[in-house]
Design brief:
The protein is mostly helical. It contains three helices and no strands. The two termini are about 25 Å apart.
């Protein structure tokens, strides 16, 4: 049950959704108009995950 609640919080966080939306648009642009190497896509994906983890930890510490 704890995992489901954590997943629900993660998926309903508006900052998280906004970040994923922006990154999705950028990746879609790169895929369609500016083809880039697969490893840069993986690097960008990892950076988004790291950014989200740091942001969520920072927001928890701020409260």
């Amino acid at each position: 049950m704890k995992i489901i609640n954590a997943l629900k919080i993660y998926l309903t966080d508006w900052k998280n959704l906004f970040t994923h939306g922006i990154v999705g648009i950028i990746l879609l642009y790169c895929l369609l108009f500016a083809p880039i190497a697969w490893y840069w896509r993986i690097v960008l994906f990892i950076l988004v995950i790291v950014f989200n983890v740091v942001r969520m930890k920072y927001s928890k510490n701020k409260k």
